[in-house]
Amino acid sequence: MIILASASPRRKELLSTLVNEFSVMPADIDETPYGLEKPEEYVVRMAREKAEAIANRSDLSHRDIIIASDTSVVLGDEILGKPENFEHAQQMLRALSGQKHQVMTSLCVCNGGLNRVATCNVVSEVLFREISNLEIEQYWRTGEPADKAGAYAIQGLGGMFVKHISGSFSAVVGLPVFEVTQLLSEFGISPLKEKVRE
């Protein structure tokens, strides 16, 4: 059994392009960054802790494969989480306006019991065009930024602010398809075989 340790509809949609059947088991962990923790250390720790929270369940076997991921929008050394309100989202989008930032998406694939654990961190660079205050207000009113890291969704209306991306589009959305495929192959799972029509 393959388990996605996330309630994200975006990750669910991306994983469904690779495997036919999987269960969704969101991991409930404390996502507070440690003091002086670097963004790349934070995202890898988050993915690993999400995977471990599910892998340690007593009803799983070593044959079960858990996939966990974490995405952070990083400007300089600052992690931009999900906005708490309009003012917070406005602050983030003003900071991102006309600037280049990084999107770090970590991945952890392991089996039940944690006999095998594989992790990676995919870093993409995103350049925003200048965004006006009116656009920020109108974008907030669409409802899209409210639950998104960095207050935008590249796969939605937020994509209109993206002037250039260098890296993995699927990783920015929330699940790096190339790296998922590579790590699943280490666990004996081939998406192409999974998707062959009988």
From TrEMBL:
InterPro entries: ITPase-like_fam, Maf-like. Pfam families: Maf. SUPFAM superfamilies: ITPase-like. One of its GO terms (molecular function) is UTP diphosphatase activity. Gene3D superfamilies: 3.90.950.10. GO terms for biological process: nucleotide metabolic process. It is found in: Cytoplasm. The record marks 10, 71, 155 as: Important for substrate specificity. It catalyses: UTP + H2O = UMP + diphosphate + H(+); dTTP + H2O = dTMP + diphosphate + H(+). Its EC number is 3.6.1.9. Its cofactor is a divalent metal cation. The active site is at 70 (proton acceptor). Keywords: Cytoplasm, Hydrolase, Nucleotide metabolism. The keyword Hydrolase applies. Belongs to the Maf family. YhdE subfamily. This is dTTP/UTP pyrophosphatase. It comes from Marinomonas aquimarina. The lineage of its organism: Bacteria, Pseudomonadati, Pseudomonadota, Gammaproteobacteria, Oceanospirillales. The gene is yhdE.
